[in-house]
Amino acid sequence: MQDPHDSVCIQRIVVQAKGRGCGKEALKLALRWLFDTRSAHRVWLDVKAFNERARHVYASLGFVYEGTLRERLRVGDRYESLILMSMLWKEYDAIWGYAISPRESE
Questions:
Q1: Residues 38 and 9 sit within 8 Å (Cβ to Cβ)
Q2: Distance CA 48, CA 69 (A)
Q3: What's the pLDDT band for 66 if we cut at 50, 70, 90?
Q4: Which of 16, 24, 102, 105 is surrounded by the fewest CB atoms within 10 Å?
Q5: 103/90: higher pLDDT
Q6: Which among 32, 31, 53, 35 is positioned nearest to 105, based on CA atoms?
Q7: What is the pLDDT of residue 65?
Q8: What's the predicted TM-score (pTM) here?
Q9: Sign of CA dihedral 64, 14, 25, 37
Q10: H or E stretch including 23?
Q11: Sheet containing strand 64-75, strands side by side
Q12: How far apart are CA 25 and CA 9, in angstroms?
């Protein structure tokens, strides 16, 4: 992992077959890999404020709201806000029960 603070940003997961749980399962696998294999301490992402479906999926997996970057993106002649969400390895472990502490893996 390149980040000196063991923090990983998930940029985008694009799923064409919406509503079938594919994106949620892909994200669960990514989280397991990041926390257990890469020993991440924190995984975070941003999501457009209007994207309620994605925000719900992230929250259902255990991501926690951190804040809003108001009018962060310019899209044409308007601006869109981003919501920041994150999960710590201890939160992941409490929910999923198999995260390895980054300190334990060394």
A1: no
A2: 10
A3: very high
A4: 16
A5: 90
A6: 35
A7: 98
A8: 0.84
A9: negative
A10: helix 22-32
A11: 7-10, 42-48, 78-88, 64-75
A12: 18
Class of the CATH-defined domain 7-96: alpha beta
More confident residue, 38 or 66: 66
pLDDT at residue 104 greater than cutoff 70: no
Look up tokens 């949620």; give the residue: 24
Place of tokens 């301490």: 41
Among 54, 36, 37, CA closest to 45: 54
Of 63, 66, 57, 51, the C-alpha closest to 92 is 63
DSSP assignment of 50-94? T-HHHHHHHHHHT-EEEEEEEEEEEETTEEEEEEEEEEEHHHHHH
Distance of CA 86 to the CA centre of its chain: 6
User: How many of the other CB atoms lie within 10 Å of CB of 77?
Assistant: 5
- Rounded Cα distance between 29 and 73, Å, is 29
